[in-house]
């Protein structure tokens, strides 16, 4: 067993490890510096390569850039998340498209009948939409950090209310909100404890 | 609007972008080279820093290293995934702990009563376990690639059967299987199409 420090066993260099995971933190306050569309496109261009089951890619991203759009969101955000959401340069509403199977003829073309496997199973589609979109949100957190930005994911909000307000088509489930920007000097507290290897991983 | 190539707008260098996303692929065949425990520990040490709601970290990883353990899994794996799972140097069973709230006193110590908010809500706990563990699986895919390894996530298996076989305590939900190793020369087909920015991102 090698006793090298964990970061030396990785192919990814230490600076990138720090940028994406070790020094990166969930930001609770942001500077006024804007996040422009070219940056968001660059993040998408990177993380869209991440794998999903049947290449379904159910994640949909609604960017609230205008103050009018942000004002429509705030009533559904928990009190503790409201000020930082109002002050972030950009807020993303992250949703799963439960009708992802409609895209399978293009996205999974080597199985021409795949779409039909799911037409009669809305509950199964929703479960897969939620799972695969959550995977993609994991990639997105990494991608936002890869752009040198800080992500501020937030689970404290009224998902049903946000769906009614922004996705009246009924085919989207809102999973998470995420503020995006440059972290302000007071953006975070101390890092919370992480579970050690022995409590997460078991080997048989 | 800057017209620079997308990769130049990122802080992460091009080699790391390739390692984690652009050149990385889901592997369907692996070499015999083993994946040792030190590598898995290094991956965990990196990705455990990824954020989860309330710092809950519900993902649990069961590594099937012995051939006896692998043989217990194979009957529950879909026919198309069986050979590559039998042949991979390591297979991880990725599960969510639905009793994650029991760890909140240590993991979210600044809210001493947080555990009690969830004791009477098993359905809500399961939904949060599934969502946050899926986020963590997204980080894990990136982490496996950061170690210079290929991940082979697989959704085609009998989750109830795997839970009964490996998690008889009833408190874990199996979300995904993942083969891990060095890709064989014939590890993948051409990359499937990805959705363009305009079909994923909307701005208000």
Describe this structure in words.
2 copies of one chain form a homodimer. By secondary structure, the first copy, chain A, is an alpha+beta fold. The first copy, chain A, is built from 8 helices and 5 strands; from the N terminus they run ααβααβααβαβαβ. The first copy, chain A, has helices at 14-22, 37-47, 67-73, 79-87, 104-107, 122-146, 159-166, 197-200, and strands at 59-64, 90-97, 150-154, 172-181, 201-203. Chain A has a 4-stranded antiparallel beta sheet with strand order 1-2-4-3. In chain A, α1 (14-22) packs across α6 and α2 (37-47) packs across α6 (122-146). The first copy, chain A, is globular. The model of chain A has no long low-confidence stretch (mean pLDDT 95). Chains A and B meet through α1, α2, β1, α6 and β5 of A and α1, α2, β1, α6 and β5 of B. β1 (59-64) of chain A pairs parallel with β5 of chain B.
Identify the notable features of this structure and list them briefly.
about 200 residues; four-stranded antiparallel sheet; homodimer; alpha+beta; 8 helices
SSE layout and pairing:
The structure is a homodimer of 204-residue chains.
Chain A: H1 14-22, H2 37-47, E1 59-64, H3 67-73, H4 79-87, E2 90-97, H5 104-107, H6 122-146, E3 150-154, H7 159-166, E4 172-181, H8 197-200, E5 201-203
Antiparallel strand pairs in A: 1-2, 2-4, 3-4
């Amino acid at each position: 067993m090698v006793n090298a420090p964990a970061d030396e066993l990785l192919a990814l260099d230490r600076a990138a490890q720090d940028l994406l995971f070790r020094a990166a933190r969930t930001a609770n306050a942001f500077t006024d510096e804007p996040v422009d569309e070219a940056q968001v496109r660059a993040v998408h261009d990177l993380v869209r390569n991440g794998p999903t089951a049947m290449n379904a890619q159910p994640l949909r991203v609604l960017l609230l850039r205008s103050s009018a759009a942000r004002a429509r969101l705030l009533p559904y955000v928990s009190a503790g998340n409201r000020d930082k959401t109002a002050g972030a340069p950009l807020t993303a509403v992250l949703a799963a498209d439960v009708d992802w199977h409609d895209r399978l003829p293009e996205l999974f073309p080597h199985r021409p009948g795949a779409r039909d496997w799911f037409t009669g199973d809305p509950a199964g589609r929703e479960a897969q939409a939620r799972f695969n979109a959550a995977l993609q949100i994991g990639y997105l957190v990494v991608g936002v950090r890869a752009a040198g930005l800080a992500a501020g994911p937030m689970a404290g909000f009224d998902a049903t209310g946000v769906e009614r307000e922004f996705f009246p088509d009924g085919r989207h489930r809102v999973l998470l909100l995420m503020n995006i920007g440059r972290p302000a000097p007071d953006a975070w507290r101390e890092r919370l404890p992480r579970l050690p290897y022995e409590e997460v991983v078991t080997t048989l």
